[in-house]
Amino acid sequence: MNRRVLVVDDSEVTRAILSRTLRNAGFEVLEARDGAEGAMAALREQPAVVVTDLEMPTMDGFPLLRLLKADPASNHIPVLILTSHGEAASRYWGLRTGADAFLTKDFHPRQLVETVTRLAAEPVTPIPGQPGESLDRQAIGPVEVLARVARHLDASLLQATVINTLLERGLEGTDFHQAAAGALEILGQVVDAHFLAVAMGGADQGLIQILLQDPIRATDVEVLGDLLVHGLDLAPDTAVELRVSGERGEMAVDLERAVWLPLPVPEAAGVLVFLPRDPHDLSASPGSLLVALTGHLALVLDNARLSQRLRELSTLDGLTRQLNHRAIYARLTEELERARRYHLPLSVVLCDFDHFKEINDTYGHLTGDAVLREGAAVLRRCLRNTDVLGRYGGEEFLALLPQVDLAAGQAAAERLRQGLESHPVRLAEGTEVRITASFGVAARDELGEAQSSDLLVSLADRRLYEAKAGGRNCVRP
After folding, report:
1. Strands 432-433 and 425-426, how do they pair?
2. How many CA atoms lie within 13 A of 244 on its CB side?
3. Cα 364–chain centre separation
4. Distance CA 297, CA 437 (A)
5. HSE value, Cβ hemisphere, 13 Å, CA-based, for 256
6. How far apart are the first and last CA of the chain?
7. How many helices (H) and strands (E) does the chain have?
8. Which of 87, 144, 176, 388 keeps 20 to 30 A from 55, CA to CA?
9. Burial tier of 476 (Cβ tally within 10 Å: 0-12, 13-18, 19+)
């Protein structure tokens, strides 16, 4: 076992006491008068333990500690800090910067020996740093030490700056995708990559954001999305929201070279994926900036994910994941006010699934839930991105069609009717349950001067009952 201990203190008396105590316990002692000498001695001699004071001239204990713990040549060396009783803040900061143990300066000699013996005996695995650096230990002098301190301080400052920017952009986002898009833009400025992507998956939802920094072909983007979904290991039929920013093009990429870094997210799965432009890029090597940022990135994205989830719980129907009654009615009020202000058309479609009670009575309520869930998904796919869909109540759904007049609204309702009719729900045992629905359509222009959400929905509801009276599975304008 390595028995060399480096004692760093500007007081000759303190150094003498420490050295005598350790030599009497069988240790070989090296001495240094300040942090700069201590750094040179530690890098050259590779002691088993460093014992250092905090307040010293030239370089005090904190820069010494940061250098030893940040430099690949010395990060495996345990450091014991000597503090006074009144230096609680110093002990806290020392722990944050990597100190392995503390003793107050009124220590008993036995405490010093026991602590140093324990630290020297503990197996310590060096933390990998950036490869490619050779170290001539005997050539290390004051200039080299100061250069290393400056380099590590610059690296720490860069990391802190990126972290702060990451947190700021993440907090600006109103949902997961906005926070993720902002975070990926920041990372894209410090990582030279064809694309960057983040994905998070919980018990009932997967969220994926992809940033294209080069014009990658659409087929590769689709494959990347599939890989991200598979990597989240989601339960079957879990809803996935995938968004892509950046321009697609004709560039083919080798997705097998993509780097996958796990994101530490409690009670969820998370991953950061990027494809370096340079095959020899070291962005994902242990100790790199990107690896150091994964914990902060996970915090930002998980916070955004949970915030989005809370908002969804208050606005989305839990079964169909469409807007609930309160939310769809609030959107109708907003859209109606906008249409009146700018003299724009607006139509609504009220839909009611036919013979839904018979489905529940025949197949059970779980099948009824599946019919509602699948039926809502079909309705959503048949609508435009600018249209709004909500579960109005029971088996009724309300669709808002901005800038759509009555004739176009009737055509949209017919597409919804055909979509439902052509997509039966397949049960686990192989049985198919066919869905049809009746539709009532109403437009803002029909109401004259007395326009309100209640009147518009009431008109659509009256026409819905006309459709049911007319044999169901039809549309009434």
Report:
1. antiparallel
2. 18
3. 39
4. 46
5. 0
6. 89
7. 14, 17
8. 144
9. buried
Residue type, 145: V
Active site residues: 395
* Both structure tokens of 4: 């060399």
Confidence of residue 43 (pLDDT cuts 50, 70, 90): confident
Query: What does the pLDDT read at residue 158?
Result: 62
Mean per-residue pLDDT of the chain: 87
DSSP conformational letter for 323: B
Distance set, CA 105 to CA 81, 270, 306 (Å): 10, 45, 47
- What distance separates the 2 farthest-apart alpha carbons in the chain? 103
Pairing mode, strands 346-353 and 388-393: unpaired
- Residue 26, burial from CB neighbour count under 10 angstroms (0-12, 13-18, 19+): exposed
- Please state, in angstroms and rounded to a whole number, the distance separating the CA atoms of residues 54 and 60: 6
pLDDT at 12 over 70: yes
Delineate the domains of the chain, giving CATH numbers in brackets. Answer: 4-135 (3.40.50.2300), 157-314 (3.30.450.40), 325-476 (3.30.70.270)
The residue type found at 12 is E
Which carries the bigger pLDDT value, residue 159 or residue 224?
224
User: Tokens 């069609």 appear where?
Assistant: 401
By mean pLDDT, which of 120-129, 165-174, 262-271, 360-369 is the weakest?
A: 120-129
* Run of H or E including 200: strand 193-201
Of 80, 17, 78, 75, give the one whose Cα is nearest residue 53.
Answer: 80
Q: Is 242 helix (H, G, I), strand (E, B) or coil?
A: strand
Question: What is the DSSP code (8-state) at residue 213?
Answer: S
Span 294-315, pLDDT tens digits: 888 888 888 888 887 787 788 9
Token pair listed for 37: 């000498």
- pLDDT band, very low/low/confident/very high, at 282 (cuts 50, 70, 90): low
Q: How confident is the model at residue 131 (pLDDT cuts 50, 70, 90)?
A: very low
Find out whether 176 and 209 touch, Cβ atoms under 8 Å.
yes
> C-alpha distances in angstroms, 102 versus 13, 25, 59, 79?
20, 19, 19, 9
Element holding 393 (H helix, E strand): strand 388-393
Measured CA to CA, the distance from residue 184 to residue 187 in angstroms comes to 5
In one-letter notation, the amino acid at residue 426 is: R
